[in-house]
Design brief:
This protein has about 400 residues and is mainly α. It folds into 2 domains: about 270 residues, Fic-like fold, CATH 1.10.3290; about 80 residues, Arc Repressor Mutant, subunit A. Helices cover about 60% and strands about 5% of the residues. The mean pLDDT is about 90.
């Protein structure tokens, strides 16, 4: 009989997900579907690279911000580009981010090379060692080593130090066991559950002197990416926990006080993951729409290269990047090249160009101004049941 058996009854390595409500399984199915959708989306290499960069920054910042890192997303993006300059008193913040970014990239690279990292006690210790690399630590904290002292995190006391190694071994055995061996076609569903429960149990055990949360979220990322979840998607759980930080801690606390009922924490995590995936689908969809629309416009004009045709092509493309409809009188102001194109021309020239593009159905005249008719390349968009008065065509 170990100490934790008497005082930590919630650490029992049982999912009890058979009692989960149907809504959770529906959300998990949608998560798998959306991950597969995002994984199969064709994007330009530069567009895909930028999206990876943005979500890597979000994920790295989120997993450290929960622990108190105060860098902004803009600063993290500068750090990824090698442009961030911080005073000595704040350099440790960049080190925290670098540690997470470096490990995420290493995990992804190892999977690409066919060296998918396993879930073992040694591996979990390696993750903790990376998290704490080159950071100032308390004297009793050894990166990558199980703690030998008691720790209090808020109101929660980590598992007895003499039981930490044993508990991590039991966690690893559980995660690698039959309960998380997904049926064919449901691998992503089981990977999501495995990742979330690995995170929850590491938070409960708290096996290290420091960096437990970051280690748990890195392990979560590793499990998801190893199962085929796109890297950009695998950062979304950390981002969710950070965006809902108060609820995150409340859910962790409630899960232990409930006697080990993991369903509420899993439901909370899956809902946030799904919300993030839905937002990513919208982001990726906009990228695809812009790319398809640009190609369509170029194909429409073909090899017509007269000054008039070039000017009209620029008119359509530059209006395409505007968030709102633009009054005709303001068109020369929206980009430098349109300003130059119409600087030496009369209003009649602009009106002729606009009318030609309206006739070609590349532009739409609304009550608020002109916009690009991007819906031409949205083949399956459902029709509006009631058009917004602001967007009613006036022509």
């Amino acid at each position: 009989m170990r100490t934790y058996n008497e005082t930590y009854s919630w650490i029992k390595f049982v999912g009890n997900l058979g009692e989960a409500p149907p809504k959770l399984w529906l959300m998990l199915g949608e998560c798998q579907s959306k991950c597969e959708h995002i994984a199969g989306v064709p994007l330009r290499p530069d567009t895909a690279e930028e999206l990876h960069r943005v979500y890597l920054a979000k994920g790295a910042l989120a997993t450290t911000a929960i622990e108190g890192n105060t860098l902004s997303e803009e600063e993290v993006l500068e750090l990824l580009d090698g442009k961030l300059k911080l005073p000595p008193s704040r350099e440790y913040l960049a080190t925290e981010i670098d540690n997470i970014v470096g490990e995420c990239n290493e995990i992804f690279a190892s999977i690409v090379d066919g060296r998918s990292p396993e879930v073992t006690r040694k591996r979990i210790c390696e993750l903790n060692r990376t998290v704490l690399n080159e950071l100032s630590l308390d004297e009793d904290v050894v990166p990558g080593a199980m703690r030998t002292h008691s720790v209090l995190v808020g109101r929660y006391r980590g598992a007895p130090p003499q039981d930490c190694a044993h508990l991590v071994d039991k966690l690893v055995e559980w995660l690698n066991g039959y309960e998380f061996q997904g049926e064919a076609g449901l691998e992503t569903v089981y990977a999501i559950l495995k990742a979330i429960l690995a995170h929850l149990y590491l938070a409960w055990i708290h096996p290290f002197g420091d960096g437990n949360g970051r280690t748990a979220r890195l392990l979560e990322f590793q499990i998801l990416v190893s199962a085929g979840v796109p890297a950009a998607c695998a950062h979304l759980l950390s981002d969710h926990y950070n965006l809902t930080r108060t609820e995150y801690y409340r859910q962790l606390d409630a899960a232990s006080k409930s006697g080990g009922d993991v369903v509420p924490f899993v439901t909370y995590s899956v809902q946030g993951f799904l919300d993030g995936l839905r937002e990513q689908i919208v982001t990726v969809g906009k990228q695809l729409l812009d790319l398809t629309w640009t190609n369509y416009v170029h194909e429409f004009f073909g090899d017509r290269a007269s000054p008039t045709q070039v000017r009209r092509r620029h008119l359509v493309l530059d209006l395409s990047w505007q968030t709102d409809p633009v009054p005709a009188s303001r068109i020369p102001e929206i980009t430098v090249r349109l300003g130059r194109a119409y600087a030496q021309r009369t209003q009649k020239t602009l009106n002729r160009d606009i009318n030609a593009m309206l006739e070609a159905r590349l532009l739409v005249q609304t009550s608020r101004g002109l916009r690009a008719r991007k819906e031409l390349v949205q083949a399956f968009i459902p029709p509006r049941t009631a058009p917004n008065d602001e967007e009613v065509e006036t022509r």
